[in-house]
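step 4 of 6: structure.
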Amino acid sequence: MNISVIGTGYVGLVTGVTLAEIGHEVICIDLDAQKIEKMKQAISPIYEPGLSEMMARNIADNRLIFTTNHQTGLENAEVIYIAVGTPENEDGSANLIYLEQAVKDIIAHLANDVIVIIKSTVPVGTNHKVKEQIQTAVKGRIQVEVVSNPEFLKEGSAIEDTFQGDRIIIGSDNKREAVIVEAINKPFGVPIFHTDIKSAEMIKYASNAFLATKISFMNEISNICELVGADVENVAFGMGLDNRIGGKFLKAGIGYGGSCFPKDTKALIQIAGNVNYEFELLKGVINVNRKQQMLLIEKLRHCYNTIEGKRIAVLGLAFKPNTDDVREAVSILIIEELLRQGAEVVAYDPIAIANAKVLLSSDVTYAASVENAIEGSDAALIITEWDEIKNADLNIFTKMRRPLIIDGRNCYKLDSVKSFSIEYHSIGRPSIVEVTNQTFSEIK
Ligand code: UGA
């Protein structure tokens, strides 16, 4: 099938490349000429395991084309995917300017009957508005239908999620279009669920909000675990054994970040608010997350009366491992607060330093390795659970000025830490403060 994809951000690029991989003829359109030139050479603008190789293969087979020209990009399309960003407005609602521009471009260049598939995360009712807008503009000249097909991929495992996903949601008003969109997606081998358009739009927001709720719930449990002396890792494991709960997304930490959960939870509150419904539970989820993001600073303040002048190593900048994305990353908030309190910050991340530099003050120093970052430091804060950090030889921490780890991702087993002279505070687990014959309160 001839498919055009508008937008080559995370969702659009992965959608275009994977649709080409299953045999469709795909043209990806983006306004950013520099980005398009790179993609033509199979250089991916995002770090995503397996993506560049898949791009190269499909470009070479002439199934994947990149263009900035909407005319060439849209003229032969049988299906057009809209996969542009829907960032948040100041009030938390979804900003639809990129979507509106994509719709204008479609109207301007539409020549044949077409199905428009909206992949972008959009408020309930948006697909119908887009359909009405395009149909009014083309005045019956050509046949246009709109289908909602929300995206569920995770950054860092996007290719795997596309081919081994749990479900593909197709929201359509008409059986004919639903069947065509099903046929497009069938080769992915992922179970397909058909529903109406509004429910499809809601499934996306409800899924992200529910996952965020799971995380905030476990973060609250972890805080209580610390107070009562339980271990949240054991608690999560025991809970997850119940099939009704499931073991995934129960990892306590320093709150969720990234380009999706923070924005989609706020947008869902707005969607509910627009119909005079106060989504109290979700407001709680967001508040818990906000508090949890500052937990490592609080823990650090328990170890030092003041952190002014202290050298603090920040390990991990990406909002999660296997991505270089720092959008809404907790690292940014933590570093800003450390600097505000007068600390000296040395940060390390295997791949996200370039992106972090754009957002952070020039006062931050960057290290080339975990070992470099912690050398001479008064504390190490673990923000992202990169394998490199999880598998680090704990002995390196004993050489810090003060061997103090505050681990926001529970990277190490308590028993492993106990055999080293390291003070260790983590999330929802007892702290390890005894070091050889001396306690750290004496050192402080
Ligand atoms: C999320 C959803 O998982 C995808 O299904 C969805 O398609 C995507 O948003 C989107 O809407 O586009 P993503 O933001 O890539 O994917 O990342 P996740 O792996 O979901 O992690 C989000 C945040 O939650 C991270 O900061 C992570 O550290 C945190 N998290 C995740 C926890 O704190 N605990 C957990 O148990 C899991």
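step 5 of 6: annotate
 - The first strand starts at residue 2 and ends at 6.
 - Residues 295-443 form a domain with the Rossmann fold fold (CATH 3.40.50.720).
step 6 of 6: archive
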